[in-house]
Batch of 2 targets.
Target 1
Amino acid sequence: MKKIFSGIQPTNVIHIGNYLGALKNWVALQDEGEAIYCIVDLHAITVPQDPKILKEKILETAALFIACGVDPSKATLFVQSSRPEHSELSWILNCFTGMGELKRMTQFKDKSGGDQDNVTAGLFDYPVLMAADILLYQTTHVPVGEDQKQHIEITRDIAQRINSKYGETFTVPEPIIKQSTARIMALDDPSKKMSKSSPNASSFIALTDTPDQIREKIKKATTDSGSEIKSSPTGEKPAITNLLRIFSGMTGREIPDIEREFEGKGYGEFKNALAEAIIEELEPIHKKFEELMADKEALHQILTQGSQKIAPLAQETLNKVKEKVGLGI
Ligand code: TYM
């Protein structure tokens, strides 16, 4: 049976890149095995956070998971810091991870912006905490976007290293990356990944944007030279390719089918249809989100129950590792 684990940071806003690259797949996968979905607040504090806002965002993120279709009666939802085993296993895994391996992580290089002396040790160590998240539950599959692929690879390396030194300890997980939506690009610059931390709010569409905001952002989205609505997997038309991928991800239609519909038509018509397709998909999510946020007590309860439900598995793995490594009395 598949054991699925994935996580998302409760920072800034959740955008359609997170939705198409990860969340939408989480919903599909909850029927294919045991699914555990985590709000990774410990990862969030690797960069400065306002405590009040962070707390609020944790609940908002839980509400968005459910609004997007994650069903708490099928999948387990919980907050990372509510299970101390994550930090504890992370420490142990640190002692089996090389500095050189972590220095090679492209996300660390990007996020530190070349100024490694002025970022936290937590940011450097981020992939090891992620490995602990995954390995703690003997996960078989991790649905993520392309940007997390390298972190799954290091998780596999750490698991294999410990397995070969101490005998079978961890399941070695596989990533699940849906190629067509694995890397949704920024609307204002298709050479950059759509990112929560972008200072330009027009570069992304948040799941909670209003229909008018969505229309405005799509209208403003960068386009390529020429007027054809045609994707180029080889990269000459990055902007229209990205918009077509978003259209396809939102509607479930194949890209060639969308291209056929807009043959001989201009960007204006295509962009209008795209904005409406996004609105159609996001409006019910937005509505459900507002309903869920009106009952914070219920959200608290879902997260607390989730954490309690997975406690035995987390403790079992942690005890097994401690025993193998020779910790305790
Ligand atoms: P985070 O919070 O940055 O992103 C959450 C998920 O969204 C995907 N994603 C994208 N997919 C397509 N296009 C984009 N532009 C885009 N931007 C983000 C990410 O790949 C991710 O799947 N380190 C993780 C959270 C994490 C985790 C884990 C994930 C912590 N522990 C264990 C899996 C398993 C992160 O920061 O994701």
Note: The mean pLDDT is 96.
Target 2
Amino acid sequence: MGAQLLDGKALAQQIRDRIAKDTAELVAKTGVRPGLAAILVGDDPASKLYVKNKQKACDAAGIYVDENRLPAGTTQAELLALIEKVNADPKVHGILVQLPLPKHIDSRVILEAVSPLKDADGFHPHNMGRLVEGMPLFTPCTPKGVIKMIESTGIPIEGTRAVVVGRSNIVGKPVALMLLHRHATVTVCHSKTRDLPAVCREADILVVAIGKAKFVTADMVKPGAVVIDVGVNRLEDGTFVGDVDFEAGWISPVPGGVGPMTIAMLLDNTLDSAKRTAGMKT
Ligand code: NDP
């Protein structure tokens, strides 16, 4: 069977259109306009591009953006002061601190300083803990996008064998938890997993987030499986490819798969936070 493309770009656009409509309604009904504080430290070109894309998406949806671009030499204390400021700003309902931060800044300290009530990326331990319990206030954007893409196939998650390759705090672990809460039987793999191809072949749902170009090949995938490729790898010729190299079942492409969904989920989290501020149900 040839691959059926899971078009993350089109799905993300549908979600962004819905967010734009909901945002306009929220403003009309309550006067509350969702606001995102975007914080970028330094000149990393990829991070700059990510923040620019997130800003553009917010603009298109009618979400206010408080843009904060800080020089690479910004101290941890200066960054903490800015976070305190946006934590207290009533116009801000979501805070995005673009990672990675420069080496002299402790990311953990910064992420823990973000108010759990404005933690649009869902990286604060409070929200991670709530995710373990199955009742997160904010769900991390990439994992949330991955789940929406799986759901868009119409194939029920309940009862499936799901394999997640990668166990990072920002992708692998939250995806595994979210699949577990949706009643999949979940296996989490990592660099020490023995016979990874055999484990992958058992998967009805295979999520790959390792950061190794074309690592997963066709022989590692059960025919008809749903495959979500989270990896983004830059090749020497400047092009981008995912972690998966094959054609079978449902596959999310790179680019145009999980990336656009991550942005849509950031907007979704910010809108939900603004709705909670306005006393509305989410
Ligand atoms: P990390 O580097 O934090 O984690 C990688 C994980 O993959 C680790 O758990 C590691 O295992 C595992 N791993 C590495 N090599 C192997 C291997 N040979 N076999 C099995 N497991 C392996 O990466 P992230 O989770 O942050 O990101 C993963 C990929 O997703 C990257 O390409 C990143 O760019 C992309 N990404 C894309 C996003 C998007 O919006 N599209 C958002 C976030 C990430 P161990 O724990 O044992 O070291």
Note: Residues 32-116 form a domain with the Rossmann fold fold (CATH 3.40.50.10860).
